[in-house]
From TrEMBL:
It comes from Streptomyces mauvecolor. Pfam families: Fer4_13. It comes from the Bacteria. This is Ferredoxin. InterPro entries: Fe-S_cluster_ET. Keywords: 3Fe-4S, Electron transport, Iron, Iron-sulfur, Metal-binding, Transport. Its cofactor is [3Fe-4S] cluster.
Amino acid sequence: MRIAVDLNRCQGYAQCAFLAPEIFAMHGEEALLYTPEADEAQREKLIQAAMACPVQAILVDAVDVPAEAVSGDR
């Protein structure tokens, strides 16, 4: 699963870091650090963290996209 966080939208509420500390962490009071990919075992915590974000800054993409589609090769 791929994770993207809109860091312009993120306000540092840290709900994600509280619910899924193995994926999200706060650096200081406002800077969010996160792992851009998570394995299937972390799905439940990741979904809870995304839903708990007060500003909806977390996007989770569970669809596997073939490398050809990303690179434009067909």
